[in-house]
Amino acid sequence: MFASPECLLGSTGYFWNHVLRKRSGTLYSKITAFALDECHCVEAWGASGFRFQYAHLGVLRQSFPHIPFVGLTATMTPTSIKYFFKSAKFKDPVIIKQPIRRKNLNIWVAPLSTGTSYDDLRVLFPDNLSSADEIPQTIIFYNSRLGTGRMADYLRKQLPASLREKAKTIIRSYNGILDELSQKETLSALRSGECRIVVCTDAFGLGMNIKAIPRVVLWKVDSKLGIDGFYQRIGRAGRDSDQPALALVFVSKANLSGQYTKDGGNPKGKKHRNKTNDNPTETLPPEVELANAAHNEFRYTLPVCKDTKPIFEGALPEIYAGPTKKALAENACESKLVPAINWTLQNDGCRMQPILVAFDDDEMMKTCEHPTGCDKCVMKRLIETNATESPPSLHGIPFTITMAYKAYQNSVPDKVPRKRKAPSRTIVPERIAKLVEDIKAWRDDALKDLAKGLAGMTVKIIFPDDKIAAIATKAKHIWNEGDLIAALKECGYSLPESFISAYTEDLHDCIRRSLEQSQPPPQLEQQLRQAARRPRTLVSSVPVVRSNVAAPVHLKSPPFCPELPNATGAHPSFNSVPRWPIPPPTSVMPVVATRTPLAEKSASEIETNVEPKEPAHPSGYNLRRSQRNKRPVSDDENTIPVTTPRKRRNKKGAN
User: Fold this and answer.
1) Quick one: CA dihedral 519, 523, 527, 529, positive or negative?
2) Best CA proximity match to 201, nearest among 151, 248, 249, 141
């Protein structure tokens, strides 16, 4: 006889009124044993009040004291075992344990690259997808009932157009609030192979024994999830099969910010931050962790080995503990995980070992075996075999997205090519205004058919003027369609869900043509740059002396300036001369004056004159200081001092 706790312990049910209360009758005498399956739910659900009947299963033991009881589970810590025995009224029980390690299960942890979007899940779809069978069957565990529907809708939009008609069959959601018919349809489609991805909560896992699911994804973890529920989720992959299965855990920055405290949480009034692991992809070397172990300090980055066993044994009460009643009553928090999960995500050794420690497994000192294993063990083997340049992939998921591989990349920055910053160009306000007008003209022509097909829609609603102005200001960074898509996302568009996503290629062509029309031809631009870089001759400050004797004046020839080509002839698409700044020629030429020697002239013929005011230098250089340093000419002196101006000291980088 199969029954739920609600069926057996319901006050209006037959079993409660005719069997448990009377403790007699035909049915009472025929019951020979009770088997309580998934008995870890007694603490997880009964203590939290989610299904409080689980906490009253001890009534069965009291009503049937003469028959055997057995509790079955794959995930129960020593603390949970004690709670179960007390709650179910077991007396002098015998504990039978077997290793829980799954040798075909690979646990990979990947940091999220975005905060709120589901873009990281695009990795679940193969490139050039043409058939639904190309998608490996996947179960995605989500922590929110409402979130399962939103994520399923997002994943359906990632399917190619040829599969959109069957999108609701290929990708389905499952949670406890759905009706029974929808749940049965999801299970039937998953078993038949029509459904390839299921986004679900823990309600999907209970009692389900679907074989050969190659991939299981955990989308972040929170404070309401215990280590038993964590292992239950990832254990849905690769059941009853020897083929390698993948459990991919996406973690946020908040998931990796926890720090160990003796009470398993943060001290009151203080906000902890793991100073030794601020970067999710950076880890401390093992020798540093062993040095910390020598000081009897347990940290979440501590690896599991014989040398560290005395250290983590002191933290076992916190590692065995699940979510507290306070954590279950409050809203879920991604930064306050239970210690066992924190240790699994942040430790520098094998990820499977902290899980085995939490369940007091006899194989806790064994790491993952080749060729399967966690991302930490796989990365260690890649380094040992010098195969880091060819990381593996499993069921279409590349190993390069894992925390272990990214940590290795950060440790060897010389081997990782850095992405060059996209060049930018200078666009004057007149050209931006012209670009705005060109984009508006393109919008009115390209989007008019789309606007007519939607009731109450206009082109200005699809692509508003303020968005066009924002895109125009970012045009100096737009060199290809990818840059345009990034600019649209910065302006608030959700791509590829937005209507404008189908017109990004045409919009980029419009921006390119508009900038080319207002850009000067390459030949003219080169001549202008050469003229701007040419050094200008400084004005000499040698004083001019007037004399009765005519003195020849020698003028230096102006510097050569090449004739600018005709703009209209140089570029066929150029209709008018561009308004680019052309450097004017030097207006003041240096003058060198000669005079007759004083020995050949009489004193009466010498006539001094006040030095003329030097014109303003075209470069704006202040020459008044050099003027003050000149020695004035006196009437009683027979010589005229001639001062040579000090050379201007060019600033670093100046032409």
Assistant:
1) positive
2) 141
Query: In terms of Cα–Cα distance, which of 439, 458, 440 is closest to 449?
Result: 458
Are 362 and 287 contained in the same domain? yes
Amino acid 180: pLDDT: 84
DSSP secondary structure letters along 308-377: THHHHHTTHHHHH----HHHHHS---TT---HHHHHHHH-SS-SHHHHHHHTT-TTTT--PPSS---HHH
Residues 31 and 82 in one domain: yes
Distance CA 59, CA 36 (A): 13
Question: Which tokens is 551 given?
Answer: 């003195």
Sequence letter at residue 404: A
* Domain co-membership, 319 together with 264: yes
**Percentage of the chain with pLDDT > 70?**
70
- 3-state class (DSSP) for residue 60: helix
- Closest of 484, 480, 488, 483 to residue 463, by C-alpha: 488
Residue 145, classed as helix, strand or coil, is helix
In this structure, which amino acid lies at residue 467? K
Residue 395 shares a structural domain with residue 320 = yes
Q: Cα–Cα distance between 327 and 225 in angstroms, integer? A: 10
How far apart CA 292 and CA 12 sit, in angstroms, is: 59
What string of DSSP letters covers 254-310?
Answer: GGG-----TTSSPPTT-----GGG-STT----HHHHHHHHHTT---TTPPPSTTTHH
**Judgement on whether residues 274 and 354 belong to the same structural domain of the protein:** yes
- Here the tokens at position 96 are 């039978």
Q: Domain check: are 293 and 340 in the same one? A: yes
How many angstroms separate the Cα of 374 from the Cα of each of 184, 222, 344, 367, 545? 34, 21, 11, 9, 91
Compute the distance between CA of residue 309 and CA of residue 349 in angstroms, rounded to an integer: 13
Between CA 62 and CA 89 the distance in angstroms is: 7
**Could you tell me which residues are beta bridge partners of residue 591?**
555
For the record, the structure tokens of 295 come out as 């000081």
Within 8 A by CB and 6+ apart from 214, the residues are 136, 137, 138, 237, 238, 243, 245, 246, 395
Residues in the chain, pLDDT under 70: 115-116, 205-208, 262-296, 413-426, 497, 518-655
CA distance 176 to 491: 38
Among 518, 544, 567, where does a domain finish? 518
The full 3-state SS of 148-212, as one line of letters, equals: HHHHHHHHHHCCCHHHHHHHHHHEEEECCCCCHHHHHHHHHHHHHCCCCEEEECHHHCCCCCCCC
CA 421 from centroid of its chain's CA atoms: 18
Tokens of 328: 């279950």
Greatest Cα pair distance in the chain? 152
| 8 Å CB contact between 214 and 236 | no
Taking residue 339's Cβ as centre, other Cβ atoms within 10 Å add up to 24
